TrEMBL record, chain A:
Protein's membrane topology: Multi-pass membrane protein
Matching InterPro entries: CPA3_antiporter_subunitB, MnhB
A Pfam family matched in the record: MnhB
Gene Ontology CC entries for this record: plasma membrane
Full protein name: Cation:proton antiporter
Keyword Transmembrane helix attributed: yes
Cell compartment(s), UniProt: Cell membrane
Residue ranges of the TM segments: 27-46, 58-77, 89-110, 145-167
From TrEMBL, chain B:
Taxonomy, superkingdom: Archaea
Location in the cell: Cell membrane
UniProt keyword Cell wall biogenesis/degradation, yes or no: no
UniProt xrefs under Gene3D superfamilies: NADH-ubiquinone/plastoquinone oxidoreductase chain 6, subunit NuoJ
TM region positions: 25-46, 53-70, 76-98, 110-132, 182-201
Span of domain MrpA C-terminal/MbhD: 34-99
Residue intervals of the MrpA C-terminal/MbhE domain: 145-192
Membrane topology of the entry: Multi-pass membrane protein
Name of the featured protein: DUF4040 domain-containing protein
InterPro entries per record: CPA3_Na-H_Antiporter_A, MrpA_C/MbhD, MrpA_C/MbhE, Nuo/plastoQ_OxRdtase_6_NuoJ
């Protein structure tokens, strides 16, 4: 992306246009191919070991999302957008909120307080073979992994693609940027419904 | 980690005067601070937005190293992943959609009244510096407070089984706040779609 900024100094106008956002680079593609497995592993490590070492769902989720960002920068945002389904991106965020809300609200149904992890002990203690205090640790890990990491990675990926597409008014089809922003109504319907469901659940508590 | 055992009362007045010198600032710290300061000023000065963004990423990386140096690895990781990584990518994406004025000037012209106001503000804040305890001072109020810090450090492992006290506070003791923060992140994603007038992230 840095190489496409060299064409400035246009003599005729005060404004220079940007070159296209994607330039295929063998160096970047090879580097990203080599680095990605390590970044993904590190992101998962940070997420899963949040209770016993520095890090947690937020940092790990950001690293997992950055894998997709790197793929998009190396192989083109449009091809990455076509490869990554909207259902996956929205699903990560909404499922994360649903899991977090469920883990938080179920203890209230069991007679405990909001997010009282030990309220699971009388119900699940025997089947899982865990002691009461262990439910706090595994509850925290469930919230970090299933809740925060899912939400952060999904939202960061989504923000990236939303920013890349930019703002294109439906009736104002300007040149250039408008062509790379297809508005697929049919795909978005079930996803946005799921989003309103999740937020409705949050409002209810 | 034996902070909870110390029951000495806080003496903020003693930890005054010149906090950095009393601890002894190492060359590593000094160079890190200089790096962060220079990159921060350069971010404001460069006329080319692309250069500003790249230097801003370097500034975030310097901050992340400082956080790690002062034993706040959780904050350092966040600063490195979000500040140096994801924010840089988002800013680059944004300026790729803009145009820039063709100009030979490398630096912004300096607005001296603004520099004066900023300098005054920094001066006023700097006056309060001697009131802070020294970095890592075991007698600082935050460490001798047995009701909050001491309680978490001494009981977090027994009550939650988490070796990382930061995560214990975030996900167990203050889980309700973390729940709210997670919802804020989710709402930010939805709001960005609303602002951009789109229904899908990827299509």
């Amino acid at each position: 992306m840095s190489s496409d900024r060299s064409a400035d100094g246009d003599a005729e106008g005060t404004i220079t246009r940007q070159r296209p956002i994607y330039t295929e680079s063998q160096v970047i593609m090879t580097t990203v191919k080599v680095v990605i497995p390590f970044v993904l592993t590190y992101g998962l490590f940070i997420t899963f070991h949040g209770t016993s070492s520095p890090g947690g769902g937020f940092q790990g989720g950001a690293l997992i999302a950055s894998v997709v960002l790197m793929i998009a920068f190396a192989f083109g945002i449009e091809s990455t957008r076509a490869w990554l389904s909207n259902t996956l991106v929205v699903g990560l965020g909404t499922v994360g909120v649903a899991i977090f809300a469920a883990i938080a609200l179920i203890p209230m149904a069991l007679g405990g307080d909001f997010l009282e992890y030990t309220a699971y002990y009388p119900v699940l203690g025997d089947t899982l073979g865990l002691k009461e205090y262990e439910f706090v640790k595994y509850g925290m890990e469930a919230v970090e992994i299933g809740g925060i990491a899912f939400i952060v990675s999904g939202v960061l990926m989504g923000l990236f693609f939303a920013l890349a597409a930019g703002f294109t008014p439906a009736d104002l089809d300007v040149t250039g940027a408008a062509s790379d922003a297809p508005t697929d109504e049919a795909v978005g319907d079930d996803a946005s419904n799921a989003a309103t469901d999740a937020t409705g659940e949050v409002d209810a508590e | 980690m034996s902070v909870a055992a110390t029951t000495t009362t806080a003496t903020p007045a003693v930890a005054g005067a010149l906090p950095l010198q009393s601890v002894g600032i190492t060359p590593v710290e000094a160079s890190l601070f200089a790096f962060v300061l220079i990159t921060a000023v350069l971010t404001a000065l460069f006329r080319d937005v692309l250069a500003s963004i790249v230097i801003f990423a370097a500034y975030s990386l310097g901050l992340a190293i400082i956080y790690t140096f002062y034993r706040a690895p959780d904050v350092g990781l966040t600063e490195a992943a979000i500040g140096a990584g994801v924010t840089t990518v988002f800013l680059l994406l944004t300026i790729a959609k803009t145009t820039r004025p063709a100009s030979d000037a490398r630096f912004e012209s300096i607005n001296w009244p603004a520099v004066g106001v900023c300098g005054l503000f920094v001066g006023v804040v700097a006056v309060t510096l001697p009131a802070f305890p020294a970095v890592g001072d075991p007698s600082s109020p935050i460490l001798t407070n047995a009701d909050v810090t001491g309680y978490y450090l001494s009981t977090a492992y027994d009550e939650t089984g988490a070796e990382n006290a930061v995560t214990a506070v975030l996900a167990a003791y203050r889980g309700f706040d973390t729940f709210g923060e997670a919802i804020v992140v989710f709402a930010a994603g939805i709001a960005s779609l609303l602002v951009l007038g789109r229904e899908v992230f990827t299509a």
